[in-house]
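COMPLEX REQUEST
Ligand: iron/sulfur cluster
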Amino acid sequence: MDNTILAIDNIFKAFPVNAGPGKTVHARAVDGVSLTVAKGEVVGLVGESGCGKSTLGRLALGLLLPTAGKVYFQGKDIGALAKEDLRALRREMQIIFQDPFASLNPRMRVRDIVTEPLVIHKLAGSRELDERAAAILARVGLSADTLMRYPHEFSGGQRQRIGIARALASGPSFIVADEPVSALDVSVQAQIINLLGDLQKDLGLSLLFIAHDLNVVRHFSDRVAVMYLGKIVEIAPAEEIYTKPSHPYTEALLADIPVPDPTVKRKHILLKGDIPSPTQVPPGCRFHTRCIYRFEPCDKVVPKTTDLGNGHFVDCHLRG
Ligand code: SF4
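STATUS: Structure written out below.
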């Protein structure tokens, strides 16, 4: 039986960008990505800011329409669904946003924020809402006395718990967590990661967990995909990404993470310069402008995807 809940099939998303009087260029935010998420699976999606990972998350949920390619959720092509059908499917697909300060309506009480999905999807009558809101808030570690308060009365970590409660309210099976801890203090990040890990296990959720730091997704991802300038350049079971990284970009991202085992030596590779603009994607391997290993074909020939076995795939001439 097919266990796939989400299948992204060769998807592209380009945004028009004003490049001066009468001139428009296109930013290739997502540039030919295929990715699956299985039922109950956590896929970590990692890369620097501007690599297209948040755009990919929104495409996965049908919040953005692709320029080309398809997204299938529970086997249905979400781009071909009628508005009403997509709306009904959205009950199953939710998002946790990065910024718990901007993502909660400051004029709404916590009760109304977390029960909004129940009202939109007609999942509860007005008499049940208080009870349902209190139960969802308890699930994320907040007491019922928060119900009638407003978002500004809470800390960043508490606000993110409210955002998680809202995402859980409609009983989704798939959640995109879009950098859910990057706006939080380091001391609070671990609490929110642990909460998400517990909820994922208890509720059997499928999760696309977006982060710019490989360390953040390490502990509860089943697989990790590394994205660079609109493309997934490496994907593997989580432990394999950390122990046998095969793309120079993954190696460079890992070089920033301290190794707990002193017997393990990791090459220290500095990532030089910034990620190029998606309006000017370099030819050949898109990482060649920053790669310390680049050689003859790298600036001309696009590397093919190489299957290293065990679900490990990489786009690099060194492995092809
Ligand atoms: Fe570096 Fe070449 Fe591999 Fe690209 S294909 S990552 S430039 S070695």
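REMARKS: The first helix runs from residue 53 to 60. The chain has a mean pLDDT of 92.
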